[in-house]
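Now for today's protein:

——
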Amino acid sequence: MDDILLGIQHITDWRGYDHMLYLLALAAWADWKGAGRLVLLATAFTLGHSITLFLAGMDWVRPNGAWIEFLIPVSIVVTALLNLRRSAAKGQGYRPGRWLYGVTVAFGLIHGLGFSTFFRISRDPGEGIVMPLLRFNLGVEIGQLAFLLAFLAVASLLRALGVTQREQQVFICAGTFAVALLMALERMP
């Protein structure tokens, strides 16, 4: 149970706001109508996150922390730009392409590396890695879904008040882009 709570805390802890910022950039287009696609994207992110946590937990990968801390905000910048570009190209009614799921898994790999050192040292050395990792990632998924449900509720309320999908996307992508760009510049190795 502690691993599940650790996963939930990993998502909801404001000190780790980069994960929430990534989810915002990823979900910039969404409302309740796109909830299913958004959940699949979040799960793709968790899949990438899980792979690198497993590799690092097995001590097969030891990433350069400075580069990972730089690449995390870069992934947010790229996601925000991709969302803006796709929105402009599609006009009304954005639907993420299949390629975005692959990109999301790749960015999950990077974000997982950012947490891998903490995960490796916080687990019980006598216990295997598979069950704690599954419990942790279940917690990550629960935390992400709770965050995204709150986001979808607000987005749907805004749509009911007349905010268009494009306006929502531009506002969210501009905000996440600006914050992540500053983070990347501060963390440049």
Observations:
- Helices lie at 2-12, 17-27, 35-57, 65-90, 98-122, 130-160, 165-187.
- The radius of gyration is 17 Å.
- Residues 130-160 form the longest helix (31 residues).
